[in-house]
Amino acid sequence: MIFFPINNIIGDMKEKRAKAILIDVIDLDTPKDEARKRLGELENLVNTYGSIVVVKTIQRKGKPDYETYIGKGKVEEIRLTGKEKKAEILIVNNILKPRQVFNLQEILRKDEIKVWDRIDLILKIFDKHAKSTEAKLQIELAGIRHMGPRIYGMGIELSRQAGAMGLRAGAGEANIEIMKRHLRKHELSIQQKLKHYDLIRAGHRKRRRRQNLKTVALVGYTNAGKSSVLNALTNKGAYVADQLFATLDTRVGKLYIKPKIQNNKKYVKGMEILISDTIGFIQDLPPSLIQAFKSTLAETVEADLILHIIDITDSQIHKKIKVVEKILDQLGLRDKPKLYVFNKIDLIPEIQQPKELRKPVRPKGILRAGKNTAKILGWESEKPKFKAAEDPGKLKRNYEKFSPVFVSANEKINLDKLIEKIEGKIKKYSQT
After folding, report:
1. CB 213 within 8 Å of CB 272
2. What are phi and psi of 43, to 5 degrees?
3. Distance between CA atoms of 93 and 57, rounded to whole angstroms?
């Protein structure tokens, strides 16, 4: 009887640095610029994982091929190119059906080229970056849910192996049933372990409510700078890297708002606010993957306020805002109070920054010599790396209902304004 260990089914998560071919199949109406950006994001994911891209290609099709997703001529072209370039992985920038993965793998097997879809790659990145036991369990659960259905596409292969070994007909199908039961049992075991973490988190949330502690959750497209914002507000020291999915585990820090006396001499007491940061979002995440991280995302679901962190330099800024909002809708958070935080304003030209943050016009008259004099006179200017995706004034008008605020977490610019808005929103919704 043939048996496949669970690790073989889910895939080896500790792959060596490998050469990869990337392909995206897009419809005939997709603009060229959007197609290029889609493939660019996939390349960024591959770089984050640690593999090397040797070929990138796009295929336009009215409808993906039923058997292989990619057109048969393109598959042969990829096979020959992969053989020439000594590629080890073909990564398709879409979610493939089990049968499509199986058929592609059969064609490319003799050239020792593995086939991954977009979710396979994301799961491997998740596994690489997971630190806590809970995050590792969640990734294993997501892997089972993604890879499990592919068992159905393995029936032919298992039957062939059984026949070659002289076993009775139908042994492949019998092994499929064994594997399905094994996966189901393993899935239930993981779910049971994750319930333990659910109970711990639920206990923490109850204690916070008893202590009347307010909570804020950071959400955003991956690499928008959520961990940097957490560090800037709380000095938490969360890991920060310029790559996708740099952090997966939930981190919670505390923001202290000092008591103050307002202009009318009214005393306003201070408050402590817990701020949590967790997994970044990305387009085309299937609901099953989001469901696997349900216990981690519970911090977001239970929060009093959501800070949606947005990279102001991102050329796809509006599209990525929609991706995040769509996932929040799936979590039932459409009506949760939100603040839009446009991050990384230190990377854009001063002329594009919000008027209130621009440096004052150089003073008239003679200036005393000093280390900043040349900058004040405009003789020195560092060219920013990026441009704003859109004029901040327009962003402010378009997203007015989300009280936009423009900050730089890295340079700690305009954080006072952000804290003021957090405090105002928390107080407003606490009274309703």
Report:
1. yes
2. -65, -40
3. 10
